[in-house]
Amino acid sequence: MPLKYLVYLFLILLSPFGMAQNMQIVYDFDRLPQTLMLNPGSEIDFDRHIGIPLLSNLYFQFGASNSGVSYNSLFSGTDDFNQVLTNLYAQNPGSKDVYAIHQQWEVFNIGWRLRDPRYYLSFGMYQEANGLGRHPEDLTNLFFNGNDQDGDGIPETDDPFRISELSGQGELIGVWHLGINKTVNDRLTIGGRLKLYSGALSVQTLSNGGTYSLSQTTFGYEHVFRAMNAGISTSGLIAGDGSSVVGETAEVIADLFFTGGNYGLGIDLGFTLKASDDITLTGSVRDLGFVNFSNEVTSYEIKEDFVIEDIPFSPPAGDEVDYWNDLWTGYYDSGLLEGKLDTVASSYTQIRPVKLNGSIKKRLRRRPKLNSAFRNVWCDVDYIGDVTLESSYGLQLYSEFRPESVL
């Protein structure tokens, strides 16, 4: 049924798995070809490059605004999914907490200087996965405590839970790119990169609205959903009947190579400017583009108020996932959601997260001292006065723009 796959997928996208090298440390890194992927207008002094297939650039990054969220606090001593969720809940995340995950794997990257030495051409392909979500505090409390939030054995009535807090998106795509770098003069270098996106998997739930509360009547209890305007869209994940349509690993990989029917377009732009002999400015904007998902698309929408007569929600501690999955299955199979939950099979578009980079660097020159920095170590160099030591310091900026409805 849909809830099983959606809950698993959405929480996995929000769950931290570890930390790895941040790609931003290679920005404006002299003589490293991968810096062209962060700034197509980087100043380069090599004539060609070939990345080792599948090994030249591989990284994984996770961020959480809640400082208590870490690999040890979530996964240490357990491999049970329900326990991992319980550990996350124990960190007391709030509705303003945000989780982000990004992974990239370079398949190949090649470049060479053209006959006109002012131009450098590069192209390649990499796989990328992104996930971003806001922590749904109200729904998390409902997930673990049901309608008895204070644990006194008496369900609370007319206590609203905000559905608007549910917001997130994730994607798995292949990126094919072609870039050109031009040395305009001895002070300015500019560049651009065209990107073609091939989407394999996608999920997003944005701009949700409505509240849920429990009401008590003469004859029992009612689960009341008001001002509903909620939905979730998927591609390559779930069929209209709620069954999984995720193919074998080989099928998912093939969708990264334009076999899945989900296509997109984007550009990168960048520059390097030597404002003076000692001051250098750089800047780039990346992933100005979109991906349209139209293959194996299934969206679920609730656009009207409704009421379900049933006993209060009461998930057992340590078995919350199975409880909610069984409850959803019962509601879905019995037809209680018929006419309330609409299944839509229309395409949707995901805007790429736009990334900005910038830096300012000042170069310092100085002559070395004749005396050694180490005690009892010296050398007699007649030409020491002609040697100049160089060092640099500066500032670097990185910012990423995501949909406002997520943040």
Q: How would you describe the overall organization of this protein?
A:
With 407 residues, the chain is α+β, with helices and mostly antiparallel strands. It is 16% helix and 43% strand. It contains 7 helices and 17 strands. It has helices at 2-14, 35-38, 71-75, 81-90, 137-145, 249-259, 320-334, and strands spanning 48-50, 58-64, 98-113, 119-134, 161-162, 167-183, 188-205, 209-217, 220-235, 263-274, 279-293, 297-302, 306-309, 342-344, 348-351, 354-366, 389-401. It has a 17-stranded antiparallel beta sheet that branches. Strand 6 and strand 7 form a beta hairpin. It is elongated, with a radius of gyration of 27 Å. The chain starts with a helix and ends in a 6-residue tail after the last strand. The model is unreliable at 1-21 (pLDDT under 50).
Nearest-integer average pLDDT: 85
Total beta strands: 17
| Shape by Cα distribution | elongated
Sketch the topology as an H/E string, one letter per element: HHEEHHEEHEEEEEHEEEEHEEEE
Unreliable stretches, pLDDT < 50, 5 or more residues? 1-21
Q: Please tell me how large the radius of gyration is.
A: 27 Å
User: How widely separated are the two ends?
Assistant: 29 Å
The major pleated sheet works out as: 17 strands, antiparallel
